[in-house]
Amino acid sequence: MAADELSRVFAALADPTRRDIVARLAVGDATVGELAAPYDVTVQAVSKHLRVLEDAGLVSRSREAQRRPVHLEAEVFDLMTKWIERYRRQAEERYRRLDDVLRSLPDDTPREGNPS
Amino acid sequence: MAADELSRVFAALADPTRRDIVARLAVGDATVGELAAPYDVTVQAVSKHLRVLEDAGLVSRSREAQRRPVHLEAEVFDLMTKWIERYRRQAEERYRRLDDVLRSLPDDTPREGNPS
DNA sequence: TCCTTGTTCAACCGTCTGGTTGAGGAAGAG
DNA sequence: CTCTTCCTCAACCAGACGGTTGAACAAGGA
């Protein structure tokens, strides 16, 4: 293990149930029992999912009597967004440059594969 | 398997080696051999990684003589960004509303961390 | 034709993962 | 204190995952 945070975040969101849990927590905090209700898995399984989300920093749990309300930590999303945007922009920039090069090419440019 | 696309994309990017491959492909297309060189794993392992990325729609492979250049498909990033932004905004909106409620509360509200 | 290069397929292996059941801890309610 | 409720821990299981080795395929070049 010992995966870096970005790996943990991506891995956490790779599971549909966990994405669903995040979606519900975006509406409001909830307890483990409440979160488990809609799914036909045991409460323990949901508890495990929450542990994964917690290790990824996506969720925090406090104590409130017996209940342990789960809270969504939205800041971590920025980590992903930054990573994604970085490479998306880089790729787009590259396409733009390639486009410019193609546009500026003379007609008799030697091209492998298309010697028409 | 038969996981939905979003799950495949997140799962694909959960692996550091695959994120690294994506980073390199953002700079320019490359062959399997070229991509495998920096890592001390076999070329077969990298080929498997590329298959995962391809199934997630993140890369495409064409044929060019013996070589199979790998190309980054940046559009899929939008899928993730949309998902993330949706719930981040929803959560922020919720905090904003909660803030308003707290602000409008009478002063004798018990136990607030920072008076004055 | 045979040979070389680049890549994938197939089988296997150890580990991680999502699920289960069963037991146990924490904090009210009686 | 005992009982109940809510939740987590521990052990286990089947399947997926990342890696390996070895063989095979595809497409030039000799």
Strand and helix layout:
2 copies of one chain form a homodimer.
Chain A: H1 5-13, H2 16-27, H3 32-36, H4 43-55, E1 59-61, E2 70-72, H5 76-104
Chain A binds a DNA duplex (30 and 30 nucleotides) through residues 1, 15, 17, 31-33, 41-45, 47-49, 51-52, 63, 65-68.
GO molecular function (chains A, B): DNA-binding transcription factor activity
InterPro entries (chains A, B): ArsR-like_HTH, HTH_ArsR_DNA-bd_dom, WH-like_DNA-bd_sf, WH_DNA-bd_sf
Domain HTH arsR-type (chains A, B): 1-91
Task: Report what the structure shows.
The structure is a homodimer of 116-residue chains. With 116 residues, the first copy, chain A, is mainly alpha-helical. Chain A has a domain at 5-72: Winged helix-like DNA-binding domain superfamily/Winged helix DNA-binding domain (Arc Repressor Mutant, subunit A), CATH 1.10.10.10. Helix content of chain A is 59%, strand content 5%. Chain A is built from 5 helices and 2 strands, in the order ααααββα. Chain A has helices at 5-13, 16-27, 32-36, 43-55, 76-104; strands at residues 59-61, 70-72. In chain A, strands 1-2 form a two-stranded antiparallel ribbon. In chain A, strand 1 and strand 2 (70-72) form a beta hairpin. In chain A, helix 1 packs antiparallel against helix 4. The longest helix of chain A is centred in the C-terminal third of the chain and has 29 residues, at 76-104. The termini of chain A are far apart. The model of chain A is unreliable at 107-116 (pLDDT under 50). The structure holds a DNA duplex (30 and 30 nucleotides). Chains A, B: GO terms for molecular function: DNA-binding transcription factor activity. Chains A, B: Residues 1-91 form the HTH arsR-type domain.
